Request: fold
Amino acid sequence: MTNTICDTVRLAAAAALDGEKTPMPPEAVQAHLDGCAGCREAVAAFTTLHAALGRVALTAPEVDLWPRVEPHVAPHMAPGRAAMLPAEPAATRGRDLAGIAALGAVLVAWRVCQVAFDWPAPVLNTLVPLAAMAWILWRVAGDPFAIRTSILELRQEGVR
Amino acid sequence: MDDATAIRDCLNGHPDAFRHVVQRHQGRALAHARLLTGNDADAADAAQEAFVDAFRHLARFDGGREFYPWFYVMLRNRCFKSTGRARRQKHEAIDPNWPAASGLPAEDRVDLRAGLAQLEPADRELIVLKHLDGWTYDELAERLEIPRGTVMSRLFHARQRLQALLEGKPR
Reply:
């Protein structure tokens, strides 16, 4: 059984092994380790794992991907033509736009009916907009390129 | 030919330019994909799809930056989609050939491989990027878009789970 201090000490010891700034001073970590057999054992086990992971190397399967990629890009790469595939199939984009427009029309009509006819439907009044928002979020979250990439930057190159 | 030149040429319609980009980065991409998906077949599929994604969105690439970090976001999305599919089909494979570990006894090597393969993809990714790619906490935080403290905590717990797996304890 560990307590919060033990958890913090183990976290700090792991960060120190990683060569990172620790959430508590090294002297405090050491002082705790001197008096806590459980943490000494946990840190020793972690040190062994850390060393083993340090000897693992990335290896890549021997596959040339170009023959698999080329058929998808070659038709769009004729000399003198901008090498871009459509970001999304036009049909899908059209369906999405039509869907969003239809959804907007339904929501506006719903609201007009609520006001005009004083519809007492509290559950539906909540569910309909929620369902609409869920659908839009699903469409947006479904785009794997929605993640911001502008801040990403790697220093290293090549497989180690 | 460097990446920026190759991508510029590619955008200008030179058919061979994207081949340079694929062939320069495919080794690293396949290695990452193998560790994220757990097997070579899914890794190759995910990497292939990610390169097609990258080509499709090449106009969005900022030529002043490195290609691989931008590409990696697409690669990890493809890998996680692939592992999600595999899990739904309940036959997540563990390829016996990864990762390579030098200087480890054969039994430890197998255990480490099996342990890594059994981790959740997000845990596996953190461990791979930290230990195999050597990313710092700050780099992990920036590139995975999570706070540094979360990196520290998630990495700590991911390694605890790996350790428990290696010791045969329940997670």
